[in-house]
């Protein structure tokens, strides 16, 4: 896993941001999922068929409201994966398989299997599984040109027999940061983080976007850290103390607008110095062509 994936995974492991992400994607920003109802549950799955291998969910949390349990999973992608619909389906299947194994053990230990059908499959007629909701977050710089569903991965030929219509597709939920310009559906620092990430390739536009947005004057440390990685600007984190202040709640806040001004000033100064060096090199070269001695050149 690359450093950008690691940074985003840590950033979204915060329950407030995790809830905000799913509320933004599923409910257009309405606060349906509450952070206090979430519980971290990331784990590895071990496949049982063929050669055993482990598959690791990027982020998984349980959502419990009353007696209802749901599984929310987030797959975190920096690079395009042309197998992503299948991968998400596989993760979901492994989760359901794990739940079934737990049910079977529970039913057997407590002697809850009565009919021949229940004894055969290990599950009672009233048993139900916790539904899984998986979203793939793609935050890479290239436009996503991968499949958008399991159907997109299939070769149906010319479908002369009409079998295509009966294919059991599997939904693939994808959120591409670089396909959006409006992130008002998010209400945590995700809004600012995603906004800044859309201008990774245009630092001038990034500066103007930050300078005109007061929200960037009071970012938290986690957001500064993840942006230093996703924007490939390590100075944002390494020199964060230069633009940090304490707010009225006695919390650290970071002024990204000030940080960008200082970084641009540094870049401009480096450009001026390099320009002066280039000019000096040309002048010295011309003097040497005129047969001037090194001593006279240095004196001048």
Write the layout of secondary structure elements.
Layout: H1 3-12, H2 15-27, E1 38-40, E2 44-46, E3 54-56, E4 59-65, E5 68-77, H3 84-109, H4 116-121, E6 132-138, E7 173-176, H5 190-197, H6 203-211, H7 221-230, H8 235-238, E8 244-246, E9 252-254, H9 256-289, H10 294-299
Helix pairs in contact: 1-7, 5-7
Overview of the structural elements:
With 300 residues, the chain is α/β, with parallel strands linked by helices. Helices cover 42% and strands 14% of the residues. The protein contains 10 helices and 9 strands. The strands form 3 sheets. It has a 5-stranded mixed β-sheet, with helices on both faces. The radius of gyration is 28 Å and the shape is elongated. The chain starts with a helix and ends with a helix.
Helix content: 40-55%
Structural class: alpha/beta
Total number of beta strands = 9
Oligomer class = single chain
Strand order of the largest sheet: 1-4-5-6-7
Q: What's the Cα radius of gyration? A: 28 Å
> Judging from the principal axes of the Cα atoms, what is the shape?
elongated
Summarize the structure.
The chain is of the alpha/beta class and 300 residues long. The chain has helices spanning 3-12, 15-27, 84-109, 116-121, 190-197, 203-211, 221-230, 235-238, 256-289, 294-299; strands at 38-40, 44-46, 54-56, 59-65, 68-77, 132-138, 173-176, 244-246, 252-254.
